[in-house]
């Protein structure tokens, strides 16, 4: 396996598996096929296509091939995933305050609220974070409030109620406006 002593990169694996033939070959090997013929039978692919895919996967260090015998080197997948995770930059903090950032990191993923905290102090931190989508001095109809909150979490009624209860939004005559929380200037 010349050049692959350090492992296979996750991007290389993703590129290899983007090809439907190679993906089928890997799947068949993962499910127990051990020869070119068994892979061809399991996938319905021509033996020639299986051999070409196995050769390419072997050159990348994912498959060990000994004539017609094949072995999927499953440890390479895990090693590539771990290396990619270690090389990924740390996520941007959601708050300058480490305690707030810890709470926000537990409840906010990829710009979405994964769950509404049950504990009031944690919920307050999360609500102060998401109230920032509302501009100061603007009055919002309920449907617009729901649209802005739906980006965060599907339970817009609960979020709306919590924001009002915590004094972060005020409601009157079907209109809402921001009335609390930190304002970035």
TrEMBL record:
Domain of life: Bacteria
InterPro entries, per the entry: DUF2087 (IPR018656), WH-like_DNA-bd_sf (IPR036388), WH_DNA-bd_sf (IPR036390)
Pfam families, per the entry: DUF2087
DUF2087 domain residues: 112-178
Matches recorded under SUPFAM superfamilies: Winged helix' DNA-binding domain
Protein name per UniProt: DUF2087 domain-containing protein
Protein source organism: Geodermatophilus africanus
């Amino acid at each position: 396996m010349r050049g692959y002593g350090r492992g296979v990169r996750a991007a290389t694996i993703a590129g290899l598996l983007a090809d439907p033939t190679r993906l089928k070959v890997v799947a068949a090997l993962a499910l127990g096929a051990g020869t070119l013929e068994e892979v061809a039978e399991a996938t319905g692919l021509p033996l020639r296509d299986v051999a070409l895919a196995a050769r390419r996967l072997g050159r990348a260090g994912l498959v060990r091939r000994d004539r017609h015998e094949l072995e999927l080197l499953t440890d390479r997948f895990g090693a590539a995933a771990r290396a990619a995770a270690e090389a990924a930059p740390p996520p941007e903090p959601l708050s300058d305050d480490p305690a707030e950032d810890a709470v926000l990191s537990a409840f906010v993923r990829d710009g979405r609220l994964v769950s509404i905290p049950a504990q009031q102090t944690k919920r307050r931190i999360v609500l102060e974070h998401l109230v920032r989508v509302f501009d100061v001095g603007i009055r919002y109809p309920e449907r617009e409030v729901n649209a802005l909150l739906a980006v965060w979490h599907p339970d817009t009624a609960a979020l709306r109620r919590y924001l009002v209860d915590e004094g972060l939004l005020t409601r009157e005559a079907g209109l809402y406006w921001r009335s609390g929380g930190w304002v970035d200037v």
